[in-house]
Design a protein that fits this description.
0% strand, 71 residues, mainly alpha
């Protein structure tokens, strides 16, 4: 292999390796962001469910008191 082809081959290999390293870093960053987003969604869902339970209990208590008052 001539010097020119050797240099060209190594520069292409370096570019390919750099490309894979960068795409892997981006992929890992996106995975981390996706996990953080999923955790935030789960936390918000849990807070919403707790709030709905509290509202349901409150309205059931109000209805029970109203029923007892009317009887």
């Amino acid at each position: 292999m001539s010097k020119f082809l050797t240099k060209k081959f190594f520069s292409i290999m370096l570019f390919v390796m750099l490309f894979f390293v960068l795409t892997n870093a981006v992929r890992n960053d996106l995975k981390k962001r996706f996990v953080v987003l999923r955790v935030k969604i789960l936390i918000n869902a849990r807070l919403l469910i707790n709030e709905m339970k509290e509202n349901l209990v409150y309205h059931m208590e109000v209805a029970t008191h109203a029923r007892l008052r009317n009887s």
